[in-house]
Structure formats: structure tokens, C-alpha cells
């Protein structure tokens, strides 16, 4: 692999404007495939979910899965798209062993959904991402490359193909070029994919697991000199399979393009592959003759012509629009704009919502997720949703705090226990001996000891300087390893020194 | 290249030698210079003959890709049994790890 020079991100932005384009493939969660009745289970033994249709055997005829069309229309509606009154499937012809038919059944110039938009929020600013189209197609088989270095296609001796995935319904969602994001381009790309994923989850049309490839993003990027009214030559980066990678891939390609352009070079319009481990892209197939797909209407399938009644029935099944939902929740919870923005920005909106549903107050839910748990997620380098604590557990911890069983400080140790898998919050309080002591006998002894050890402070309090009690409370808490009921300790000190 | 989408058509269709060569490459058919010289004019004649049909249809006849006036033929999202892996792989030239073994796809990276 040749060494690639990169411009710094700042230098890139001084001279160029980035234009983004995102193509997101969503694998639908239908029971059966797009054009045949084969199951779609992830991780099945190779070639156990195949039939003559998805293997492209002669004479096999495809029939469209109604549920997949419904999901496509619902995705289109949720993205504010028009739904075609009449559209067809098309054959995308290419020779590649991942499709045994030598073509992929897709849609070409007649997508089922088109001309939509989605508002994406980044750092308090809203970017409207225009959706060019969302079309139906089928997934391809999975190849295993043998004999080369680290399973890569280049230099492989031969490849092994599993067609379980071939024919699983896919919806490809394509944006129009997103211009004007400047330095925010990497974040806008990430936020778009993240928000689209949330929408897909809310619609319930896909597992939406990026790690399993049920949502896959291709990132198109081009640079134009600042202020130019045309777009530069773009590259299409494939294999971007996490939200963080979307951001990194955009940033990397911006810097790579800038270095080439600055050196007087030209950008090759090509497909590039993202490498998660090294954080770079490498050249894939060049866009040339090899990508002349000779689309033509699929003669084995009749057109799809969704009636307006059907479309309206499906519209009625849409979940609440995310923007409206956010406004509703903010009002219900009494959050300030800043609190709401921080909650969304931390990726904790759904977590806070579930924690409140499990019985916590909005402020308590926000406090735990945005401070204690966000900090731990950050330390571990994971999203806050992956920190290892559930909303129900957070609500339970807060219940123990409200009941006086533990205080906030001890609650942190309960979270330690939860992350370590030591059981329920109550079990952890018991097994770690974390309960607050409010028993006067034990507290009284500790208070006496503190008074004895700090005669000067004790004298001040006797002289009426009640504020000095803080020092003695601290001393008692230390003695009790933080497990004392601070309110009761204060009362005892004041009683004894009055 | 001729428009195959059915949206436009003219009676006069020509296919050049270069187009035939390009299509042959896409279809992985190895044609010699002599074969290209021979085939290109013949394909033009065939396409012209087919295109003459468009002269018959008036403006009121829309182009179509299907002879039947059918739309919305769907199946329910129900799993039906397919093939066993043994059946599926029965026609494979080579099998390895219960997968179809295919020759190398790309050459070495440049």
C-alpha cells in the first residue's frame, strides 16, 4: 500500500468546500426474501437459506414480497418523499459472483420514493438533507476470499460464496449533494446516518444493526475550491460500518482530496474501501467500463402501482415525527433548551425517556445519564447506550437514593457493581454493604470520635458557629466510609454540642 | 448505445463497431477484429428491423415493458422451504466449506 499524503483538516477548509452524498442501504427485517420465500435469518449456516429463485437457476420466477413494498413506502413517507404512482424494477447487469443471476434486481429511473428531506441537528444547528430517492432492491451474497492477505479480495487465490443473504430486501436511500456544511461536514454525515438509523428503528422495518451490516453507508465526497459554483470529482467510499467511521471516512477523504488537488493532481472518480482498523481508504474498482450496468426493466416482474388509499393507510402507521417528539418530550420533562440539546447530543434521549418511563424523575434521569454514565462511556470509548447499565437499573438506583438507602456517592459504587454484572441494584447494595447508616448508635459513636479528634472545631460550634459543623460531618463521613446519613449526622453533632 | 428503457425510440438505429466491441467486453465475449467487422453491420440491421415496430404504434400507444396490463402482483411475507445445501451446491463446479468456490475475482492491488 502506497503512502498517502494528507492535508491538515484546517488547511483543507481554508481552500475547499466539501460536498457530501450518502447512500445508505437498509436491510429490511422481513421474514422472507424480496422475491422468494427463503428465510432471512442472520448467521445461518452457509447456503441453507436458498432456493432456485435466489440462486438464479433457469426458469425460476420472482414474486415481490408485499411487506417489503410496504416497508419501502413507509420509509419513503417518513423521509417526506413522494411515493411513485407507478414504478418498475430493473435489472442491473454485472458479472460478479455475489449475484448468481449476473444481475441484481433493483430500481433504476423509477424509484418507489423520491424528493424527500430530513432535518439533521448538529451542535444546535439544523441542516436539511434532501433525499433524492429511496428504491427497492435485493442484497447480494457474501464472499469469503481465500489465499490472500487477511481475507482481502486483492491477491486472493479464490473466493467462496454463501448466497443466504442474496435476495434479502434492501432499501437504498440516496441524498442529494449536501453542500455548505464546511468544517461540520464529517459531523453532519454522522448525524444524518445516526438520525436515519433512529427513524428506521422507530419504523420497526429493520434490525438496524450496523455491526451486522443491516445498515450500510457509502460516503460520496468531493471538494471544490471555496466559492466555486460547481462540484468537484467525487469518490465513493464503501464499507463504512459504524457511525464513528462515517465521520472519520469523510474527514479522511477531505484531507486526501485536498492533498492531491494542492499538488496539482486530479481526483479519480472511483470506489474506495474504508479500513476500520487503520482508518484509511484504499482504491477499489475504478469507475469505468466495468460499471456500465445496462439497466433495463425487469421483464419477470410487473410494475408496482401503490394506490393512494394504500399509501394513506401506511402513512397512518408512521411513528411520531422525531422533531415533534423532541418538542413534546422537552415540554413534558421541563428541560431547558440547553439540557435538551445536551441530552440529544450525548445520544441519551431514548435512555432518559426509558428511565423516566421506569419511574425516575426527568432531572434524576438526566443527571445520571449525562454525568456519571456519560463519563464512564467516554472513558471506555463506547456510546452511552453501550455502557452496561439499563434505564430500568438507573431508575432503580434513583429509587434507592430517594428512599435514603444510599446516597449519590454510594450510587456510583452501585453502578460499578452493575457494570461488573454483580446483580440488581438492591443485591449490589447488600453484597457490597453500601447501605447508608442512620442508626443513632453507630453514628453517635462516630460523632463522639470526631468531636474528640477536633476539639477546636467543637468549641466553635459550642460558641454558636453552626457553619463549622461541616468539618465534623466530613470527618464522620470519612470514618463511616461515606455510608452515613449526612442529615442525621448533622443533627447529632448539633444536639451534642448545644 | 440504443435506449432500451422503452421511453424513446426512433426508426433509425445504428450500432457502431466501437459499441459492439464495448458490449462484447461487458458480456465477456472475446471478439476478433474480423468478427467485429462482420457483426456490427448485422446488428444494425436487426435493431432497425425491431425499431420499425415503433413506426406502427401511434403517439397514443405508450411504450411498455410488459405485454399484460397487470400491476401489484405480490406474495405474503411467508417463509417457504427452499433447497438443502446439498441440493443448492449440486451444480457447483467446486465446493469448499459449504460454499460455492469461484476463481479469483480481482488481480493484485496496484
From TrEMBL, chain A:
Function: Allows the formation of correctly charged Asn-tRNA(Asn) or Gln-tRNA(Gln) through the transamidation of misacylated Asp-tRNA(Asn) or Glu-tRNA(Gln) in organisms which lack either or both of asparaginyl-tRNA or glutaminyl-tRNA synthetases. The reaction takes place in the presence of glutamine and ATP through an activated phospho-Asp-tRNA(Asn) or phospho-Glu-tRNA(Gln).
UniProt-listed Enzyme Commission number(s): 6.3.5.-
One Pfam family hit: GatB_N
The protein, known as: Aspartyl/glutamyl-tRNA(Asn/Gln) amidotransferase subunit B
Keyword Transport: no
Domain Asn/Gln amidotransferase: 350-497
Record's subunit section: Heterotrimer of A, B and C subunits.
GO BP terms in the entry: glutaminyl-tRNAGln biosynthesis via transamidation; translation
Family, as annotated: Belongs to the GatB/GatE family. GatB subfamily.
InterPro entries with a match to the protein in the record: Asn/Gln-tRNA_amidoTrfase_suB/E, Asn/Gln-tRNA_Trfase_suB/E_cat, Asn/Gln_amidotransferase, Asn/Gln_tRNA_amidoTrase-B-like, GatB, GatB_Yqey_C_2, Gln-tRNA_amidoTrfase_suB_CS, Gln_synth/guanido_kin_cat_dom
Lineage: Bacteria, Bacillati, Actinomycetota, Actinomycetes, Propionibacteriales
Catalytic activity: L-aspartyl-tRNA(Asn) + L-glutamine + ATP + H2O = L-asparaginyl-tRNA(Asn) + L-glutamate + ADP + phosphate + 2 H(+); L-glutamyl-tRNA(Gln) + L-glutamine + ATP + H2O = L-glutaminyl-tRNA(Gln) + L-glutamate + ADP + phosphate + H(+)
Keywords in alphabetical order: ATP-binding, Ligase, Nucleotide-binding, Protein biosynthesis, Transferase
A Gene Ontology molecular function term of the record: asparaginyl-tRNA synthase (glutamine-hydrolyzing) activity
Organism: Nocardioides gansuensis
From TrEMBL, chain B:
Catalytic reaction equation(s): L-aspartyl-tRNA(Asn) + L-glutamine + ATP + H2O = L-asparaginyl-tRNA(Asn) + L-glutamate + ADP + phosphate + 2 H(+); L-glutamyl-tRNA(Gln) + L-glutamine + ATP + H2O = L-glutaminyl-tRNA(Gln) + L-glutamate + ADP + phosphate + H(+)
Gene3D superfamilies reported for this sequence: Glu-tRNAGln amidotransferase C subunit, N-terminal domain (1.10.20.60)
GO biological process: glutaminyl-tRNAGln biosynthesis via transamidation; regulation of translational fidelity; translation
GO molecular function terms listed in the Swiss-Prot or TrEMBL record: asparaginyl-tRNA synthase (glutamine-hydrolyzing) activity; ATP binding; glutaminyl-tRNA synthase (glutamine-hydrolyzing) activity; transferase activity
Membrane-spanning residues: none
Keyword annotations of the record: ATP-binding, Ligase, Nucleotide-binding, Protein biosynthesis, Transferase
Coiled-coil stretches noted in the UniProt entry, renumbered to this chain: none
E.C. code: 6.3.5.-
Pfam families listed in its UniProt record: GatC
Subunit structure, interactors included: Heterotrimer of A, B and C subunits.
Function: Allows the formation of correctly charged Asn-tRNA(Asn) or Gln-tRNA(Gln) through the transamidation of misacylated Asp-tRNA(Asn) or Glu-tRNA(Gln) in organisms which lack either or both of asparaginyl-tRNA or glutaminyl-tRNA synthetases. The reaction takes place in the presence of glutamine and ATP through an activated phospho-Asp-tRNA(Asn) or phospho-Glu-tRNA(Gln).
Family indicated by similarity: Belongs to the GatC family.
Annotated protein name in UniProt: Aspartyl/glutamyl-tRNA(Asn/Gln) amidotransferase subunit C
Annotated organism of origin: Nocardioides gansuensis
Upper classification of the organism: Bacteria, Bacillati, Actinomycetota, Actinomycetes, Propionibacteriales
Gene that produces this protein: gatC
